[in-house]
Design goal:
Blueprint: E1 2-6, H1 10-21, E2 25-29, H2 36-41, E3 45-47, H3 50-56, E4 62-65, H4 71-83, E5 89-92, H5 98-109, E6 114-121, H6 123-129, E7 131-136, H7 139-152, E8 153-162, H8 166-194, H9 201-208, H10 217-228, H11 244-255, H12 260-272, H13 278-291
Parallel strand pairs: 1-2, 1-4, 2-3, 4-5, 5-6, 7-8
Antiparallel strand pairs: 6-7
Helix pairs in contact: 1-6, 8-11, 8-12, 9-10, 11-12
Length: 301
């Protein structure tokens, strides 16, 4: 099978390598021309222009987008849609909002083009060695592209989830769960770090991951990162938020479903990015006003 792969970031390039290893012919494009050498080293064809990529592919075309959610995906989607023909397929393997995916599905349908929203999990390692994917779109066309998912995912690692939007909706909830799991690990290890016991936290993570009820890949990663820098002295305590947790929280509010752990994990991420801490300054000042409590001034730090 042939795939047109657009977007060769960390995930995209590793997915390219995975596809090539499984005998899929890859026609690749990225606006960063310096990625050409690496793409070709995996045996892919690289094109500087999308027109060249599309024109080079023969017969029914399958185009896989591996791009950041938002304007970039929308721009490339619009451009590639103009260049495809009836019966062709677009796969969005990024973390787009599911409502955007439904809209793109409807837009594609007017031209007879099939759009699939694919939630992708497993990180860079998964993209290279076998991911977990959740696929929404038309069931009758899914059978045509299913061999791709059989090739690039781990065994039992993909699921056709149903109608348009369902793949990205499921990935959104997956990421909300991920937020909560990481938050609990962070809080637990912070408590251990500040306790009066002299724990070797790398070994703690190791024993947690052998037979305990909280063993997981995230715990494996915890053990690994603590082996590299036990005190995490080289890490800033800032947790960027890519958006999926916020989307999950918004959906919960719309559906009136309680998700307190995921909600709190989203709030912690926002708090970590707040260097000004204006709200905390207001609270410290209020305590001083009503109770005479001392205020720690900047020069006193």
């Amino acid at each position: 099978m042939e795939i047109g792969l657009i977007g060769l970031g960390k995930m995209g390039m590793m997915l390219l390598s995975n596809m090539r290893e499984h005998g899929i012919h890859v026609y690749a494009h990225d606006r960063e021309s310096e990625l050409e050498k690496e793409a070709k080293s995996y045996g892919a064809h690289f094109y500087h222009e999308m027109d060249e990529l599309v024109n080079e592919m023969k017969g029914r075309k399958v185009i896989w987008l591996m791009l950041p959610a938002g304007e970039v995906t929308e721009e490339v989607f619009r451009k590639i849609l103009e260049r495809l023909s009836e019966g062709d397929v677009i796969i969005d393997g990024g973390n787009a909002h599911y409502r955007d995916s439904i809209r793109r599905y409807e837009t594609s349908k007017t031209k007879g083009i099939h759009f699939f929203d694919v939630g992708t999990s497993g990180g860079v390692e998964g993209a290279r060695n076998g991911s977990c994917m959740m696929i929404g779109g038309d069931s009758d066309v899914f059978t045509y592209i299913e061999p791709i998912f059989e090739a690039v995912n781990v065994q039992n690692g993909y699921l056709y989830t149903g109608e348009s939007g369902s793949g990205h909706f499921l990935k959104m909830i997956h990421n909300g769960i991920e937020y909560g799991m990481m938050q609990s690990i962070g809080e637990g290890f912070n408590l251990l770090h500040k306790s009066h016991y002299e724990y070797d936290l790398e070994k703690v993570a190791g024993v947690f991951n052998h037979g305990s009820v909280i063993r997981s890949w995230l715990m494996e990663l915890t053990e690994s990162l603590l082996s590299e820098d036990p005190k995490l002295t080289q890490v800033e305590g800032v947790i960027p938020s890519s958006g999926e947790g916020k989307w999950a929280l918004e959906e919960a509010l719309n559906l009136r479903v309680s998700i307190p752990v995921i909600a709190q994990s989203v709030m912690v991420r926002y708090a970590s990015e707040d260097n000004e801490k204006y709200g905390e300054k207001v609270i410290a000042s209020l305590r001083n006003k009503f109770g005479g409590h001392d205020i720690l001034k900047k020069e006193e730090k």
